[in-house]
Amino acid sequence: MTEEEKIIERILEWAGRRDAAYAWYRNQPIPAVDGRTAEALVKLGQADVVYDYLEHMAFGGYA
Questions:
Q1: 39 neighbors 26 (Cβ within 8 angstroms)
Q2: Which domain holds residue 35?
Q3: Which of 15, 25, 36, 43 is surrounded by the fewest CB atoms within 10 Å?
């Protein structure tokens, strides 16, 4: 399973649909990392930053 697939599976529960999960992954800027998207971070080899962000959000942290 690729990093992209792992992240999509992780956010699928709150995204509701696979297409919505992919839309978030590709298009939603993450303020904590200078507005980069999850897709951009994965392409830079920084999937761990996305996982950390998702973990932070899961525990009620601010975006």
A1: yes
A2: 3-58
A3: 43
